[in-house]
Amino acid sequence: MVRNSSDEEEDHRNLIPQNDTRDNDLDLRREDELHSVTTNGGGRSPRSAFQIDEIVSRARNRWKISVNKRYVVAAVSLTVFVGYLFLFTDTRRFFSVDLSSFKLDPMSSRVKESELQALNLLRQQQLALVSLLNRTNFNSSNAIGSSALIDNVKAALLKQISVNKEIEEVLLSPHRTGNYSVTGSGSDSITGNYYDDRCRKVDQKLLDRITIEWKPRPDKFLFAICLSGQMSNHLICLEKHMFFAALLDRVLVIPSSKFDYQYDRVIDIERINTCLGRTVVISFDQFKEIDKKKNAHIDTFICYFSSPQPCYVDEDHIKKLKGLGVSIGGKLEAPWIEDIKKPTKRTSQEVVEKFKSDDGVIAIGDVFYADMEQDLVMQPGGPINHKCKTLIEPSRLILVTAQRFIQTFLGNNFISLHLRRHGFLKFCNAKSPSCFYPIPQAADCISRMVERANAPVIYLSTDAAESETGLLQSLVVVDGKVVPLVKRPPRNSAEKWDSLLYRHGIEDDSQVDAMLDKTICAMSSVFIGASGSTFTEDILRLRKDWGTSSMCDEYLCRGEEPNFIAENE
Predict the structure, then answer these.
(1) How does 254-277 read in b/e, with b if 16+ C-beta sit within 10 Å?
(2) Handedness of CA 304, 286, 389, 394 (dihedral sign)
(3) In terms of Cα–Cα distance, which of 503, 497, 485, 490 is closest to 405?
(4) Burial class of 187 by CB neighbour count within 10 A (0 to 12, 13 to 18, 19+)
(5) DSSP 3-state assignment of 544?
(6) Residue 396 gets which letter from DSSP?
(7) Is the CB of residue 147 less than 8 Å from the CB of residue 116?
């Protein structure tokens, strides 16, 4: 007979209660039997073997219950311990996973594709900006109104190219593996050359120089007299005296330190003779030794300037000359009418005609303001043929000290700034336009130059007060970073860059300090000068002669007027 599943389920429901009732009755009978055994003094009944088995079975059941309790206690203890760990310890150490060990690509293909498209667009923008920069005719007067605006447009274009490059680098960073770059080796060639060229060195065209020979007669001398201004003026005057001496075939006599500056502390006089391969300059002491028969006599004063006074030499300086044992023959006379306030352009031929003389020793007075053959005088290396870069340059001690300072503090890429302030306010305001700028305006001009030149540091040569330089330092900011202004620090025995100066006892000489400043400025990548300052002009002369002139060299805030000018007294 076949039974279906529903019948089996019904039987199962009926059988389970029956089994439970039977088990309960069996347990009651076993308890009664066990009680009878124990009350009979341990006597053995016919069913005692079964009773012992039941006792053992019940003992085993109790042991199983005890073991189960131990498991429960252990489980509870483990739970409490884990809870303690979570409460009082840094669980991140136990659960941290080193994701770098999994070689999974964190960027989806769509993200990669978007980034590469962005890179392509940046590349096109970069090419367009560079093309615009190269095609714009900045040299044409019709292109843009003023040179200052030209510089601003250039700076804006270059800034956008720089930002473009930074964005490109950020987008490329996830795609780089090891030393491999997605853009390849030529990625920087688009703008790199332009960045290098925008403040490139000026081509001095030395092959186009026009020079004259300086071959003096050994018994004919020109006595140099330079009185106007400070050392920078005197050095410019001395350079012009060399040109006159070469035209007149005379040996140039360097003035005594008792009458003028001590030139041999700042320039190497003997080096000038080496550059020409013959004796063309001598010191005052050498002159006295050669001319001792005449007791250092000046035969004739042929004055270049007639006004405001002949030779631009006052009575006090005439007395100083005589006090040195120098006698003067004749009067101070000028061959033409020439005023230092309105100098006339003169030619070499005019000078030779007016100043030629058979006298052994002549003097022509101060020629700092002389306007004679400026195209020749302003050539790189000057108007005289020689084998050096320049005839008047800092002494070897100063030159090496400047190099050591640059190696210590500045490095090969720095801007130098000559900031003239002392006595310059009144001087500049007398000019039109004024050249004295408020510190915030000056800081803005300097910041733009730093951005153009891409230099990390500025060397500051200044006579400004600390209050002005401190404000300037806080305002020279490029890309949110303050650009440091470095000045020569006070003497420190722990620093050795200036050891040559104190070994030779010239470390406290103000003229040595000034020449050291000039030398550092002349060796900079870019120079910012002070308009109207002969200190700046002498730096520009050195840069031109040494070949360090940059396309970015300029006067401070060139093309701008001060945004505030005080009234006159």
Answers:
(1) bbbeebbbebebbbbbeebbebbe
(2) negative
(3) 497
(4) middle
(5) helix
(6) H
(7) no
Identify whether the C-beta of residue 455 lies closer than 8 Å to the C-beta of residue 414: yes
The CA distance from 178 to 274, in Å, is 56
Alpha carbon 260 to its chain centroid, in Å, reads 38
CA torsion through residues 384, 386, 389, 395, sign: negative
- Tally of CB atoms within 10 A around 476: 23
What does the block give as tokens for 247? 């035209």
569 residues of the chain, pLDDT tens digit each: 444 444 444 444 444 444 444 444 544 454 554 444 444 444 444 444 445 455 545 555 554 555 455 555 565 566 655 555 555 555 454 444 454 444 545 556 767 777 777 777 777 777 777 766 666 665 544 443 455 566 667 667 777 777 777 777 777 776 665 554 444 444 455 445 555 567 899 988 888 889 999 999 999 999 999 998 999 999 999 999 999 999 999 999 999 999 999 999 999 999 999 999 999 999 999 998 887 766 788 999 999 999 999 998 888 888 888 888 888 888 888 999 999 999 999 999 999 999 999 999 999 999 999 999 999 999 999 999 999 999 999 999 999 999 999 999 999 999 999 999 998 999 999 998 999 999 999 999 999 999 999 999 999 999 999 999 999 999 999 988 999 999 999 888 888 999 999 999 998 899 999 999 999 999 999 999 999 999 999 999 999 999 999 999 999 999 999 999 999 88
Which H/E stretch holds residue 415?
Answer: strand 415-419
Dist. CA 320–CA 316, nearest whole Å: 6
CA distances to 30, 216, 360 from 249, in Å: 150, 4, 11
Contact (Cβ atoms closer than 8 angstroms) between residue 515 and residue 390: no
**What sign has the CA pseudo-torsion 402, 408, 414, 418?**
negative
Q: Decide if 270 contacts 334 (C-beta within 8 A).
A: no
Place of tokens 């109104």: 145
The residues that bridge with 223 in the sheet, in sequence order, are 253, 363
Q: Distance between CA 90 and CA 547 in Å, rounded?
A: 66
DSSP conformation class of 267: B
Tokens representing 95? 């659960």
**For residue 241, which of 282, 207, 275, 299 has the smallest C-alpha distance?**
282
CA distance 459 to 178: 38
Compute the half-sphere exposure of residue 191: CA atoms within 13 Å on the CB side of its CA.
20
pTM over 0.85? The answer is no
The separation between CA 355 and the C-alpha centre of its own chain, rounded to angstroms, equals: 50
Cα–Cα distances in angstroms (integers) from residue 153 to residues 150, 368, 448, 526, in the given order = 5, 39, 11, 19
Q: Quick one: which H or E segment has residue 197? A: helix 189-198
Q: Identify the H or E element spanning 427.
A: helix 424-429
Q: Which of helix, strand or coil describes residue 545?
A: helix
Alpha helices in 206-290 (DSSP H): 231-247, 269-276, 284-290
Where in 103-249 does DSSP place strands (E)? 221-223
Which amino acid is it at 201? K
The helix/strand/coil state of 555 is strand
